[in-house]
Write a structure and sequence with these properties.
- The chain is an all-alpha fold and about 80 residues long.
- It is built from 5 helices and no strands.
- The longest helix has 20 residues, at about 35-55.
- It is globular and about 45 Å long.
Length: about 80
């Protein structure tokens, strides 16, 4: 999907909000699942970890620094999502 100038100007929160709007619309009046907060965190955290690891070329120390967490915490999260390399 090509990026436009307006895409570059939008903060990440804009896309998160738009995705949540689409999610709630797709429920068609059904009750949302319980633990929505945890569900959203899991849906965001895995691709975040994947992209940061790719960007850091697999360097976990650099990835942890970029994320603002310690390397041990990063390694635990990678195991939780089966992303440990």
């Amino acid at each position: 999907m090509p990026k436009t100038d307006s895409d570059a100007a939008q903060p990440l929160s804009h896309y998160v909000g738009a995705s949540l709007d689409r999610y709630f619309e797709s429920l068609n009046g059904c009750a949302p699942p319980r633990d929505l907060y945890q569900m959203v965190l899991e849906q965001v955290e895995k691709p975040l970890l994947e992209r940061v690891l790719d960007y850091s070329q697999g360097n976990q120390s650099r990835a942890a620094e970029m994320l603002g967490i310690n390397r041990g915490t990063l390694r635990k999260k990678l195991r939780n999502y089966a992303l440990d390399r």
